[in-house]
Amino acid sequence: MSIDLGDRRVAHLLVVGYGITGQAVCQYAVRQGVRVTVSDRRRLSAADRDRLAAHGASVEDGRHSEHSLDGVDAVVLSPSVPMTSPLVEEAWRRGLPVCSELDLAALASAPVPIVAVTGTNGKSSTVAMIGELLRLQGLRAPVVGNVGAPFIDAAGDTERVDAFVVEASSYQLEQSIVFHPHVGAMLNLEPDHLARHGSMEAYRAAKGRLFRLQTADDVAILPSRWADRFREGSARRVWFDRGGAMPAGAERFAPHQQANLRAALCACEALCAGFDRDGIPIDRIAEVLRLPHRMAVVGRVGGVRVIDDSKATNPASTVAALAAVDGASVLLLGGQAKEAGYDALCDAIDASAVRRVIVFGAAADRLLELLERRPVERVAGVEEAIRAGLAAARPGDTLLFSPACASFDAYRNFEERGEAFARAVRALPAFSAD
Predict the structure, then answer these.
(1) pLDDT for the residue numbered 198
(2) At residue 1, does pLDDT exceed 80?
(3) Rounded to a whole number, what is the largest CA-CA distance in the chain?
(4) Do 208 and 326 belong to one domain?
(5) How does 242-273 read in b/e, with b if 16+ C-beta sit within 10 Å?
(6) Same domain, yes or no: 31 and 108
(7) Number of compact structural domains in the chain
(8) Segments forming the whole domain that contains residue 53
(9) When you count CB atoms within 10 A of the terminal residue's CB, does the N or C end of the chain come out lower?
(10) Do 65 and 150 belong to one domain?
């Protein structure tokens, strides 16, 4: 058996990377009767090797070699695999298509329409809102992609789905060759992932691939200031910051979430004829915005409100977090520094009622230098940052854990970092959940 990848029949698939995405792709390929080879730089566990062997899959672990390309018809990359990988270059030399999981999922999901959202920040919040708004319209619209479950996990279930809502990262879009959303939304673009993409222009180009294959029957949703910046594709352009009236009660959302809601509303209007903004229960939308580690209130310690915003893995996210905090705050920054954006964060700190900044982790020295004229303190890690932050805070202040850095210096991901932060806060004797 085989699967179609554009105009190519694929009977033997190479899956590069066996993380969450790679595992989902393998499971899909096996269900389609396609032969699978897996290549991963890590050593796979015995359980993973046994599971793959049970499905007749070949395994190369501990390296990526060009021999893994022998006899395959196409290559699917896990998002972490860069396009500059020697294995990718060798695949191209052999004339093999190299694609992303989004490509396979989009082909498998036809003809169900796809609403895809990208941007530096706000993707998860926006797809969550779109999913809820579509459900309120009576549509079956699973939210998939970079937000959690891989798209390919749900793509074959087309008879019970009215639309797929997909969070798409720049890594996935960079790899995609046939992904074509009916509605594509670009929220914002700030310096991020430059170590992967090499420059802001390359990062912009990766994000712009969201629109590349859109036709005049499709819709591209962007902020109006980008009228001349993203010309890919031929979709009808909709400027979400010039959209219609907001639902009653939306003014209580932070400014960045109001912008995300505007984009979500435009996406639903593009997909659903007769979509009506009036009467949207804003409490339902507020509920879906309570995502883990995204401006989540942990509780209080000695009269200080504590917020877990571990999802803030770049400076622009922390700028938005500062704008959402009322009153004075103590800001905890640190982790693995990003390539750019910290000058804007320093400006935002100066414009906010930040009483003190606590820096920690691998980025501490760099942050300390950037913040040298401001009240700043360096500590080792997250637990020390909590203690120092609470010592500097006053009753009524907010202790804001919004690191502006990746977590990989000490944690596997921002979720693990956020759990460690919240656990340490809850363990304090003066902690209250109120």
Answers:
(1) 67
(2) no
(3) 66
(4) no
(5) ebeebbeebeebbebbebbbbbbbbbbbbbbe
(6) no
(7) 3
(8) 3-96
(9) C
(10) no
**Domain co-membership, 144 together with 175:** yes
Rounded mean pLDDT, 335-344: 86
356-383 residue pLDDT tens: 999 999 999 999 999 988 899 999 999 9
Do 90 and 123 have their domain in common?
no
Domain boundary among 96, 118, 149: 96
- The end-to-end CA distance of the chain, in Å, is 58
CATH number at residue 310: 3.90.190.20
363/406 Cα distance (integer angstroms): 10
Tokens representing 167 are 């969070």
Which of 335, 27, 341 lies closest to 188, judged by CA?
341
Residue 194 has pLDDT above 60, yes or no: no
pLDDT tens-digit readout, 50-72: 999 998 999 999 989 999 999 99
Compute, in degrees rounded to 10, the torsion defined by CA atoms 399, 404, 409, 412. Answer: 80
Are residue 107 and residue 53 in the same domain, yes or no?
Answer: no
Dihedrals phi, psi of 311, to nearest 5 degrees: -60, -15
Question: Which pTM was predicted?
Answer: 0.80
CATH number reported for the structural domain that contains residue 271 in this entry: 3.40.1190.10
User: Are residues 203 and 194 in contact, defined by beta-carbon separation less than 8 angstroms?
Assistant: yes
The model's confidence at residue 273, banded by pLDDT at 50, 70 and 90, is: confident
